[in-house]
Every structure is written in structure tokens, then in C-alpha cells.
Design brief:
By secondary structure, this protein is an alpha/beta fold. It has one domain (4-250): 3 Solenoid (UDP N-Acetylglucosamine Acyltransferase, domain 1). It is 18% helix and 27% strand. The chain has helices at 194-198, 211-250, and strands spanning 18-19, 34-35, 40-41, 46-49, 51-53, 58-59, 64-67, 73-75, 80-81, 86-89, 93-94, 97-98, 103-104, 110-111, 124-126, 131-132, 137-144, 149-150, 155-161, 166-167, 172-173, 178-179, 184-185, 190-191. Strands 1, 2, 4, 5, 7, 8, 10, 15, 17, 19, 21, 22 and 24 form a 13-stranded parallel β-sheet that branches. The chain is flat. 40% of the residues are buried.
């Protein structure tokens, strides 16, 4: 991750909801979030520490990316974190030592502590064009692929969810399982066994077949629009400050 001074100027100390983590015995690295310029983080969302948010990522009110314990957390381009989403992970290191199985590679492989890839791994990895719907939680170690929809109030913990998957509302996926690509997890499912994961139906033909496409379109437009509004508001604020300064310098009364 980059230092605070290396990030886009839109996200600075004037944004108290976006800040670095503290140093602890389980995480000695202090990191400031890395946020692409076109991502939008609502003022009531929170982004802390070793979090990466890609292009046009939409982070809605009350969503949290907390990269201060399990690190790093990576959300790829064009994905979204809707209201109340939580991203957080178990410790990945303890007193300078790696912990087995607490990170995934970018490709989705579970990494052991002695792996040469461990230092490049992720507590949480979320792929491109993936939607995390309202009040869902992805708790590391976890890996979520591309073009995947995670339904409202669903939980992914200690698990891998592949590409092109749709997860129905209020589902739980855990216990080290891996959901194969192109599957549909029906609402209310509890998937704790690999045989259950392998037996899931296909997303194509399910009620959620096209859900993610529509959700992505909405959230990309929101990210673009709110960024434009934010930049416009900043210009107005700067203009007002300049006018006030000019009035004070010329002795005119400030309205």
C-alpha cells in the first residue's frame, strides 16, 4: 500500500472517515487506503488502513472496509459495496510471523504461511464487476471472483466464491468451502460442506441470472454522478472562499 501523501488529493486528512490504521503486534505496518480517483466513498462510509478500492468502485453509506487486522483487502475495478457492507479479516500475521491459510492469492489459491506468495496475498480479494449487496459481510480469509453477486445479509467467511456466481439473500458460506464458477446459491442457504457447494444449481436459468448486470449499471452511474457532484461542490466552496477573501481585502462586508 502507499503512504498517505501518495494518494489522490481528493482523499486526504479532510476526510476523517478515510484514514490509516494503527501499529499493533499483529500488524506492524501502518498503511493509508489506496483509492482510485474514480471510486466514490460516501462520507458516512469508513475506509481504514490497508484497503485498495479500484476504478468506479461505489462505497455506499455505512459500508466499511477495515484493513487494520487481516490485510490487505482488495476490491477490484467496477465493483460495489452497498449500504452496511462489512469487509474485515482475521489476523494474517502475529508478532511478525505469517499464519497458515489466512491469505488467498489473486488467482484464488489458499496460501500457507511458508508460501513464497504469502506476502503478495490478500486477506480479502474481491474481483472485477462484483456486487456486495446491502448488509452483506465478507470476512477474511475470503476470496470472491469476477462478475459475482452477493445477496443482502449474506456472509462469506473462510471461503472462496468463484466467478459468475449469484448468492441469494441471507446465505452463509464458510468452513473452507469453495463455490465453483457459474453456480447459484439459493436464498437462505448454509453451505459448509464441499459436496453441498459442488451440488449447487447453475446461475443461468435461476431467478438471479441477470441480477448482477443491472446492479453494476446502477452503481457505476452512482459512482460517476456522485463524484461529479462532489467536484462541483468543491468548486463552489473554493469560489465562495475566494469571494470572501476578496471582500475582506477590499473592506467590503461579507454576506
Amino acid at each position: 500500500m502507499t503512504n498517505e501523501s501518495d494518494n489522490h488529493s481528493s482523499y486526504s486528512k479532510e476526510w476523517p472517515n478515510i484514514h490509516s490504521n494503527i501499529k499493533t503486534d499483529f500488524n506492524t505496518n501502518i498503511s493509508f487506503p489506496e483509492i482510485q480517483e474514480t471510486a466514490f466513498i460516501h462520507p458516512f462510509a469508513v475506509v481504514i488502513g490497508n484497503c485498495y478500492l479500484g476504478k468506479l468502485v461505489m462505497v455506499a453509506p455505512t459500508a466499511v472496509c477495515r484493513g487494520d487486522e487481516g490485510t490487505p483487502i482488495h476490491v477490484s475495478d467496477y465493483s460495489n459495496m452497498q449500504d452496511g457492507v462489512i469487509l474485515h479479516g482475521l489476523e494474517t500475521t502475529e508478532k511478525g510471523k505469517n499464519i497458515d491459510g489466512r491469505r488467498y492469492s489473486e488467482a484464488g489459491d489458499r496460501l500457507m504461511a511458508n508460501s513464497s506468495q504469502f506476502s503478495e496475498g490478500y486477506s480479502i480479494f474481491v474481483g472485477t464487476n462484483t456486487s456486495l449487496a446491502h448488509d452483506s459481510m465478507v470476512h477474511g480469509p475470503a476470496w470472491v471472483g469476477n462478475n459475482t453477486f452477493v445477496g443482502m445479509k449474506s456472509i462469506i467467511f473462510d471461503a472462496k466464491v468463484g466467478n459468475n456466481i449469484a448468492i441469494g439473500i441471507s446465505s452463509t458460506i464458510s468452513n473452507g468451502v469453495s463455490i465453483p464458477n457459474n453456480k447459484f446459491v439459493p436464498p437462505g442457504s448454509v453451505i459448509l460442506d464441499q459436496e453441498e457447494a459442488d451440488a449447487l444449481p447453475l446461475r443461468i436459468g435461476s431467478p438471479y441470472e441477470n441480477t448482477n448486470t443491472a446492479v453494476l449499471d446502477v452503481n457505476e452511474q452512482l459512482a460517476e454522478g456522485y463524484n461529479k457532484q462532489l467536484n462541483s461542490d468543491k468548486l463552489v466552496e473554493q469560489r465562495e472562499r475566494q469571494m470572501e477573501k476578496g471582500m475582506l481585502e477590499t473592506g467590503m462586508s461579507v454576506p
